[in-house]
Design a protein that fits this description.
The complex is a heterotetramer, with two copies of chain A (185 residues) and two copies of chain B (385 residues). With 185 residues, chain A is mainly alpha-helical. Chain A has a domain of 115 residues: Cytochrome Bc1 Complex, Chain D, domain 2, CATH 1.10.760. Chain A is 27% helix and 5% strand. The longest helix of chain A has 14 residues. Chain A starts with 32 loop residues before the first strand and ends in an 11-residue tail after the last strand. With 385 residues, chain B is mainly beta. In chain B, 9% of the residues lie in helices and 32% in strands. Chain B contains six helices and 24 strands. In chain B, a hairpin with a 6-residue loop joins strand 8 and strand 9. The termini of chain B are far apart. Classes of the chains: A mainly alpha (185), B mainly beta (385). Strand 5 of chain C pairs antiparallel with strand 1 of chain D, so a sheet runs across the interface. The structure holds heme C (HEC) (2 copies), calcium ion (6 copies) and cobalt (II) ion (2 copies). One heme C sits at the interface of chains D and C.
Chain lengths: 185, 385, 385, 185
């Protein structure tokens, strides 16, 4: 009978214990060189939800509209909904069990700072990192406006951006799955 | 066709050049190619990834054992594969640390190292709903390698991490400048920075020259082409961990769903192969991001009864295992299924069990799947149960 | 240099063709290559076998972990690498059997299969006597793969082996029509016929489409490109088991010396690398044809004192294990050595211990070897002790 | 201390036990097809020490000398000792601890049948399998003669070849190494 064939074995302990005994290790190996503040500043482009990392500058919906038409519409559609790439604009709630509704900045992005961070690092897809901070602020303003999150006149900058409350924020929870024989999928 | 290019032939060049080798097809009748500087793949073997604009799926139905050939490892990129000069390459570690530092690749290679065989799976690894799907289409975004590098814990000692730091940002040097926030307490135990894959340097598509490996977690967080780590007290809420790689469940959005749940798939027999009446060794892969696989059950009657498969040793933690189950098919239409059980006791759910608690969330969809064997030998995919 | 060939770009072709990409060297500023049908190796990585007319040695000093990349597996051929069409391929089993049979490759793939990670070492795997030798030169004729195929015991049931059969001949379809006689009682326990290596089909240099694997035994007997097995009551006394692969010891010639004795070699630091004062993680490989490695001892004082190295899990039977030993070098000239111990209790001997009982027999020469670290950082081979 | 770091584990049992339980296996899977005597005969070229497998035919030293000069001397030297490939001829004993003495048919080959078997399957290196059985008998005769094992007039065939006693035969013993903590190397 196949039952006896299960010759498997559960690993006795988890992997991290390989280096449990570090008694002969020095406090530090000392390899690598100290990073200067200058090189840290030049590389650390990540923005936190509280706005830390946002550069000086500002942008407007009007300027964003122009830049969008020139550099973004080809991939995301003239109105941000036509594609062929990701749909950016839409306010219909996702939680109506209608799977045809697309995830957008308006209905799914929990933090406004992510818009600035992502566009600056990755868009336009064919020339990432080519936009000025001012351009990114303007595009962020334009996309927030089109998603009915801010008014058309709002100026977006390091102070105002993190204060914007995103409609989807309230839905986000940490992973609530549990492992084990009675799991929450 | 044989190419004569053997140093042994120097001494008999005249007679060789007089030989008519065009008609010789018996390999015992003419010397083959001499040893070279690098091995080859048979011209009769033609395994291929299945490429889409931003991903490529592994031909898992063609694999044997548990190792994935490095050039057939699945690919998922957000800005293409960058070409990085390992001599120019630097990793910056900063943020909530007392000693921000820059490491060259050669610095990292000096640290105490470790190797580990682990699967890596994209959390979007599912395609279903049709009968004409191969294992490569259904679940080809999982692969397995032996990774070698430095434990995160080893490296993090060097920079003096602030005890208040709870997360770190991992950032790639691809065109997406890919970023993910990683929970420090969970990552520090098993996380690695790896520079080698299956014995040699990482392949470009897998993050050359350096990537993060977080065992058992969704592939996207094991950031490739790693250039920067920034410690923080909170997650950065990057696009990939908010707009992507999150799951609407009920009226919530589940975020930081990192562990890959236990899963299995039968890779033989499968679509578009043909099954033959008589003895069949049903074969497949099973894995869990939460530990070791402790069992794989097989049903050959569409889920009514189950019997344990043989699992190939060694069974490793957070690794693909190869399972096999000998079965005699009487030739009547039936459906075969596999079901993985991991060391937490988690049993791979059916599609309906999964869908009952959440719609298809696009990510972390790991149901039991089946292959319907038709009387004429056709094998068709099924996930409608 | 970046090649623009991404389907995503279809939509923005005009603006792209207007872009001047010649000056862009920052990989975050331009999309890289999209996912393809097959992965690649970085242009900055250039590992090579070291070819001689009839063999090629693996660059073991460049490997990480325990798996050997398939195209860098050592090679040893006696008639070059044949090109074999797997659809034409047949294996004949006959001799002292009641049911002589011919198997196509697809027949063999139907049988219950198994996978196993094993080293394969040429019994002539030694070069010494000079200080300017790299690990590749000293011991590059050992490699490790995950092999998949059929157990001999499974296949031999099919042909009805005569109980009086004690040996079988294994014959290749290369230009040497390589033959070896195999003792049935010892081979039946662990022997395999394999068609896959590291997840995919065998590589041509490793015996595509079918080879014998006799775990722990000298490589030559694991006949490649296998076409025929003939059962017999006695060995055939082929050229390879008489004129070659035998050892004059005292006034006898030792024949059918099959098991590879335990061995280890430090691969880092090694010639022609340079060592740097301070912390060094000494790394290397250890293996035994008689079972598992249970320990590797390291000496950093030319053999006076020994300390155990850390051995990478999982430690597998008859498989390479990676060992590591953290050491702080004070910069003074010294010699580092490694010594393997296997589960039989066998301790890898010194060159002098080996030579005391037999001259260098060309085969099965597995001594402890050393690397002398010079004050200027040069690392020189030593086997004179 | 490093001692505690040795986190290795001896496999509990050996590998063959994977298929210990074959209770649900049939006596035979039945795959593969029966081999006909004709195809067995065409493929089974191996010669046993008792002469089993030797084909009809015969050869002489004189003929062997001619064939050798034409097809072998280029690689093994006019006298079978000059190389560049393996030295074939030599009668000096190997067991004088003089490592410059080369292994040859005369001093190292324990079975005469191996000469026929090997030449027929593998030589000449550039055209293996191209010799007729008669040619192989003659080359075998020639090499035996040059190694002072047979007289110049001796005819070699299926009856006579296996009866030839090789000088090296008496030295050959089976592997006498022992494993364990007190091994014979
Ligand atoms: C060449 C095509 C292309 C152009 C031009 C382009 N994008 Fe994109 N965009 C994409 C693709 C492809 C993705 C998805 C990338 C991924 O998933 O990794 C994307 C994703 C995005 C997203 C994330 C959507 C989500 O829901 O996660 C935003 C926001 C975005 N683009 C904004 C812009 C802006 C602003 C511009 C102009 C400055 C722009 N894009 C220009 C192709 C393009
Ligand atoms: C093109 C070169 C070449 C030619 C021509 C050639 N040989 Fe060889 N011979 C070799 C090589 C190379 C080897 C060693 C092969 C190996 O080790 O796999 C060898 C090995 C041998 C051996 C085995 C020697 C030993 O000690 O194991 C014999 C016997 C032999 N040859 C006989 C012949 C005869 C007889 C002919 C002519 C019919 C011949 N050779 C023609 C290259 C050649
Ligand atoms: Ca069974
Ligand atoms: Ca442990
Ligand atoms: Ca996408
Ligand atoms: Ca230690
Ligand atoms: Ca067992
Ligand atoms: Ca040779
Ligand atoms: Co997730
Ligand atoms: Co031997």
């Amino acid at each position: 009978d196949v039952e006896n064939n299960n010759d498997y074995r559960i690993p006795e302990d988890s992997y991290e214990t390989i280096y449990e005994d570090r008694s002969d290790w020095p406090d530090s190996f000392g390899w690598g060189r100290p990073a200067s503040q200058k090189e840290i500043d030049s590389l650390s482009i990540a923005i936190k939800p509280d706005g830390t990392g946002l550069p000086q500058g500002s942008g407007t919906v009007a300027e964003g509209r122009t830049i969008y038409a020139g550099k973004c519409a080809a991939c995301h559609g003239p109105n941000g909904v036509e594609g062929p790439e990701d749909v950016l604009i839409g306010t219909e709630s996702l939680f109506q069990q209608d799977i045809t509704i697309r995830k957008t900045i308006g209905n799914y992005w929990p933090y406004s700072t992510t818009i600035f961070d992502y566009i600056r690092r990755a868009m336009p897809f064919n020339a990432p990192g080519s936009l000025s901070d001012e351009e990114v602020y303007s595009l962020t303003a334009y996309l927030l406006f089109k998603n009915q999150i801010i008014d058309e006149g709002k100026v977006i900058g390091p102070e105002s951006l993190p204060k914007i409350e995103m409609p989807a924020k309230k839905f986000f929870v940490k992973d609530d799955r549990t492992a084990g024989s009675n799991p929450t999928y | 066709t044989f190419l004569i290019k053997n140093s042994l032939f120097g001494t008999v060049q005249t007679s060789l050049s007089e030989m008519d080798i065009s008609g010789i097809s018996d390999p015992t009748k003419l010397p083959g190619l001499p040893p070279g500087e690098i091995g080859s793949r048979s011209v009769y073997e033609n395994l291929k990834l299945l490429p889409l604009p931003a991903s490529s799926r592994s031909p898992i139905q063609d694999f044997h054992g548990m190792i994935t050939p490095s050039d057939l490892h699945f690919q998922r990129h957000h800005g293409g594969v960058p070409e990085i000069d390992p001599n120019q390459f630097e990793l910056l570690i900063h943020g909530m640390v007392s000693k921000p530092k820059v490491f060259k690749l050669k610095d990292l290679k000096k640290f105490p190292s470790t190797s580990r065989i682990l699967f890596l799976e994209c959390s979007g690894n599912y395609q279903g709903g049709r009968e004409d799907l191969s294992p490569q289409q259904v679940a080809g975004m999982t692969s397995q390698s032996e990774w070698t590098g430095v434990m995160l814990s080893t490296l993090f000692r060097e920079v003096g991490v602030d005890p208040k730091a709870k997360w770190f940002l991992a950032e790639g040097s691809d065109a997406a400048v890919m970023t993910r926030s990683v929970p420090l307490d969970r990552a520090i135990k098993e996380g690695m920075l790896v520079y080698a894959q299956n014995g040699e340097a990482l392949r470009p598509e897998q993050g050359y020259p350096l990537r993060l490996i977080l065992p058992g977690w969704e592939g996207n967080i094991s950031v490739k082409w790693l250039r920067r780590i920034e410690f923080s007290d909170a997650p950065f809420m990057t696009r990939e961990e908010t707009s992507k790689y999150t799951e609407p469940v009920g009226n919530k959005v589940r975020q930081f769903s990192l562990e890959m749940d236990a899963r299995s798939i039968i890779t033989y027999p499968s679509y578009p192969q043909r099954a033959e009446k008589g003895y069949i060794e049903i074969k497949g892969l099973a894995w869990s991001g939460r530990g070791a696989i402790i069992g794989v059950d097989i049903s050959t009657d569409g889920g009514k009864s189950w019997n344990p498969a043989v699992i190939q040793q060694p069974v490793l933690d957070k690794a693909h295992v190869r399972f096999r189950y000998l079965w005699k098919w009487d030739g009547r239409e039936t459906e075969i299924r596999s079901r993985a059980v991991d060391q937490t006791g988690y049993v791979q759910p059916t599609p309906k069990q999964l869908l009952a608690v959440r719609e298809n969330t696009r990510y972390h969809f790991n149901p039991v799947t089946g292959w319907i064997l038709k009387r004429d030998g056709r094998v068709l995919f099924n996930d409608d149960f």
